UniProtKB/TrEMBL annotation:
Species assigned in the record: Clostridium formicaceticum
InterPro entries, per database record: ACP_syn_III_N, DUF5940, Gly/sarc/bet/_Rdtase_C_bsu, Thiolase-like
A Pfam family: DUF5940
Domain DUF5940 span(s) in chain numbering: 347-511
Protein name: Glycine reductase
Superkingdom of origin: Bacteria
Residues of the Beta-ketoacyl-[acyl-carrier-protein] synthase III N-terminal domain: 255-329
């Protein structure tokens, strides 16, 4: 079978300022341990407006209005810069305001767990009716809303999780079971956010790439959350629930988990399934995580910055059989951080970068663009984590010098030539490799690049089951235009080889 191709992608952001205070782990733990802290008192004064979030340069890159390289036109820090002509919608997706996203939580709610106040519901309905992707059948799921008294009762007496907008109570998420902690209101809220953001990404994937939902065969959801009950805490299935909302009636699916590396694992799985002929069209999709909102907020407030982690992220990618046009996924050029790899930077880069290149007879400089951990340095540098993409590019360049692929004088410019500034939100799984897939596909179709490498890294030790690090990578390559022509030895080549062997055998018999 031939290599699978990336046939489309989508990227969405949801501005959720009220969820920072009420759902972000940094803030909720601070409330428990130090409820009168200076940080919590100052935080509300460091929240951005929706307009500021839309005009923020990295966000415009994420939804496809700017190319990653164009971030270099803006001096850092970026949080006080604006993109002229910034728009809610980009070629890959959109930046959705909080009120509409709260409405979407109710739309995707299959068990009537979300209660929204009547007047709020009415306003959100009108807004969502204008949304290009919200069909009448979806908007109708908002119903008429609930009385605020009933919402307050659910919160006070039945442990529902409150939903706020503009610092006012507008609804709640009810618990799904009286004693099962895996179905409590807080976790149901988190899971509905994953589902809603994944659904929005899926809908944009279909719309932006003119794909029929019925053509999707399989869905792989690869966020960092897990849904289940007391008998199977991470049983799933986000994938099928998202496919259902998008009316992908011919699809089945499953969830893949691997912390930050999961999306790249999922990309490889999708490519393998398509290449093997198991499925023709596979979507990988991931919703966002409320837990990561305001994760580095203390450092941002300390430095008198706005809270930049005020957005939920999501994405979707369609992997399909070779059409002779779209970039191929080289499943023979995979990097793997194995159990025996080790955790030193050199060992990690060797396993993920140079090992797959060696199998293809390629140099480090043969990859036009490396998409590593594309963390936004505006977020990470004030928190003491430095410029993560830049650090990765320096390590790759250093190894290139050691291998003889790169002159020492070219190390300083390697990141500019073969990398990009980071622009992805710190949503855990979102930054690791996959934010570039959409931009890469555009660059391939425009004949701007020949090869790119998508690198996913993960921290398995966070689950307290192992101290192991994790990572995988895959090379994307320009399509040679042969479509379904087989990879490697063709049927004709095999026949010629057999014929040649038979002739040699016959000659040998005659000689005897």
């Amino acid at each position: 079978m031939s290599y699978a191709v990336v046939k489309g992608s989508s990227y969405v952001l949801m501005h959720t300022p009220d969820m920072i205070m009420h759902n972000g782990t940094t803030q909720t733990t601070e409330k428990q341990s130090n409820p009168n802290s200076e940080y919590l008192q100052k935080l509300p004064n460091h929240l951005r407006s929706y307009e500021a979030v839309v005009s923020y340069p990295p966000n415009q890159v994420y939804i496809g209005k700017l190319k990653p390289e164009e971030l270099r036109n803006y001096d850092m820090p970026w949080y006080d810069k604006e993109v002229e002509g910034a728009d809610r919608y980009g070629k890959f997706g959109e930046i959705m305001p909080q009120a509409e996203f709260i409405g979407l939580l109710k739309i995707v709610d299959a068990f009537d767990l979300v209660m929204l106040e009547k007047s709020f519901t009415s306003k959100v309905k009108e807004e969502l009716k204008k949304h290009p992707l919200m069909k009448e059948s979806l908007v109708a799921k908002l119903k008429e809303g609930d009385d605020i008294e009933e919402i307050n009762k659910a919160i006070k007496e039945f442990h529902a999780e409150a939903i706020y907008h503009d610092n006012e109570l507008v609804g709640c998420v009810k618990r799904a079971h009286e004693i099962d902690s895996n179905l409590n209101a807080h976790i149901m809220y988190e899971n509905l956010v994953v589902k809603a953001s994944g659904v929005l990404a899926f809908l944009h994937l279909l719309d932006k790439n003119n794909i029929e939902a019925s053509a999707i065969d399989y869905v792989i959801e690869c966020s960092e959350e897990a849904c289940g009950d007391m008998n199977q805490r991470g049983g799933g299935n986000f994938a099928k629930s998202i496919a259902e909302m998008a009316e992908a009636v011919n699809a089945t699916g499953s969830d893949t988990r691997g912390f930050c590396a999961a999306p790249t694992h999922a990309l490889i799985e999708a490519a393998a399934l398509v290449k093997a002929g198991v499925y023709e069209n596979v979507v990988i999709v991931a919703g966002g995580a409320t837990a990561k909102l305001g994760m580095n907020g203390k450092d941002h407030v300390k430095k008198d910055m706005p809270i930049l982690e005020d957005i939920i992220g999501g994405f979707a990618v369609l992997v399909s059989k070779n059409d002779g046009i779209n970039p191929v996924l080289r499943t023979d050029l995979l990097g793997r951080h194995t159990v025996g790899t080790g955790s030193s930077p050199q060992a990690v880069i060797t396993s993920l970068i140079t090992a797959p290149l060696d199998r293809g007879g390629l140099k480090i400089t043969d990859i036009d663009k490396y998409s590593v951990e594309m963390q936004n340095p505006d977020v990470t540098k004030p928190a003491g984590a430095g410029d993560v993409p830049e650090a990765n590019y320096k390590m790759i360049a250093a190894l290139g010098v050691k291998r003889g692929d790169l002159d020492r004088k070219d190390v300083a410019t390697f990141g500019e030539k073969h990398g990009m500034p980071g622009w992805a939100p710190t949503q855990g799984h979102i930054p690791s490799g996959v934010p570039y897939i959409g931009h890469a596909r555009e660059a391939f179709l425009n004949k701007e690049i020949n090869r790119a490498m998508i690198v996913g890294k993960g921290s398995l030790f966070l689950g307290r089951m192992t101290n192991q690090f994790d990572g995988v990578s895959i090379v994307m390559e320009q399509n040679n235009g042969q479509g379904e022509a087989t990879v490697g030895i063709s049927e004709g080549d095999v026949k010629n080889m057999i014929a040649e062997a038979m002739r040699n055998f016959a000659t040998h018999l005659l000689e005897e």
